Amino acid sequence: MNKKVLKWNFVFQYGYVITNIINSVILLPLYLKRIDSSTLGLWLATGNILAWMTLADPGVGDVLQQKIAQLRGQNSDREIGLTIGSGFSASACILAISVIAGFVFYFLIGTIINKDVSKYDGLQVALLVSIIATGMSLVSFSLSGMNQGMHNSAPVAIGSLTANVLFLITNVILLYLGFGVISIAASNLTRALYINVFNFTALKRVLNREKLEIIFDGSHFKRFIKIFSFTSVSRIIGGFAASMDMIVLARFVNPAMITVFEINKRPIQMTQSLIGRHSVALMPVISHANGKGETEGIRNLIDTQFKYYTYAAIFIALCFWLNYHSLITAWTGEGKYAGNTVVYLLIGNFFFDLLGYFMANMGYALGDIKMNSFINILKGIVSGVLYYFVTKAYGLIGLMITMITLNILIDFVFFSVRLYKLGFLNMTLMRRSLMLWAIIIPLSALGGWGFSLLYATVIPADMLIIKILLNGGSFAVFFAGLILTLDESLRNDVTSMLSSVFKINFNKQSIINQ
């Protein structure tokens, strides 16, 4: 497996999310100051409705990434050219359909959320700009998928990072110029246009370097779009279900309360995206290795990476549990914390959703696209129905309990069993992991609780940032020591890694001395 490509995949996936997190940390307080609270709350809710435009994309970028990477492993150059050509044709169709769908949803928004959007300053213009921005973003997903499949990861990483910097600069300037909610939409459009130009230029370079042609063929395009018979339905149903939480809240809850919920959800959501990107970064490498028939190497990679992935998820979940009230208060001020019950449910949902996401992505990368799509269809139907009726009857708490239950039963349990049946999940490892979690989680929670009591006693209540840093740092050292003590395989991995680093440094020093 190409470690250089894997490294750039990690740079792309983590870098993109980290810059998004930085942007959100900087921009959300500005949004709260520069945009009316009710307008912002409705923008968040109506943004989810316009996000239904993305349902026009049946997952072309993901399929292109998986297919092209596998074809590269098989050295099928002509088939790669045909697949890229069909990908461009599919992207053009998606752009047209998504923009048309966007205008349809635009005229229906008021009816869906039972609000007159014209009464909120700048909201109508922002929604119109968002229609074009979302359509261009869908095209960029396809171009990124082509580049990732070609193992052209470095330009994808650079393009995504610089695009996020451009988004931040544009947004800040427009906010201070007084454009309000329009600033967000215009910045999204600027980012989408930039990243499309960057990705297309990078793709042309790699195709020229490897002497590959883009081939447009009608018969191949017909075969190509047949793949999406399942994925399109999965995307449509899953997309509606994913946005139903904010939409039902917009219908049954005061818009100002939606803003409070979004503030509390956002740090967890951003961190979830950050950790989840780890599994996404593995996908092109696994698809390529599967094309070359490297079954044992894939099993070992999944075993090792799942171990690191789950420890990261446990650590972050416990950090949130210990510090979330201080974090929200330090970030946005007093009165924005949604309460322990909501936050604890968000944290539980964060953990199990991440585990299921890893398993689902591994199956997708191995070509299990139809089954992956079928389960997402099932989950989307069940969750979409339950979200509406449970939220109507039991409010936000009922919604959160429904979300975490479905994530455990469908995402985590089913996709784990499916990966095992495909022959790529070591169930002995899973049982051992569960036994370790049963020891590590309570011991970690106990240690973290002790640190929290200590710093709450010795640090003044208004020094929230200092308390978060000290508490988080102390807990990180404690958690690292605990898992290294209890997990022998992790300890061996770290020892081997450090030995390799010291050996390399020693060899370099020996050469210098000579």
TrEMBL record:
It is found in: Cell membrane. This is Membrane protein involved in the export of O-antigen and teichoic acid. InterPro entries: Poly_Biosynth_Transport (IPR050833). It comes from the Bacteria. It is a multi-pass membrane protein. Keywords: Cell membrane, Membrane, Transmembrane, Transmembrane helix. PANTHER family: O-ANTIGEN TRANSPORTER-RELATED, PST FAMILY PREDICTED COLANIC ACID TRANSPORTER. The chain crosses the membrane at residues 12-32, 39-56, 88-113, 125-145, 165-186, 308-331, 337-359, 371-390, 396-415, 436-458, 464-486. GO terms for cellular component: plasma membrane. It comes from Pedobacter westerhofensis.
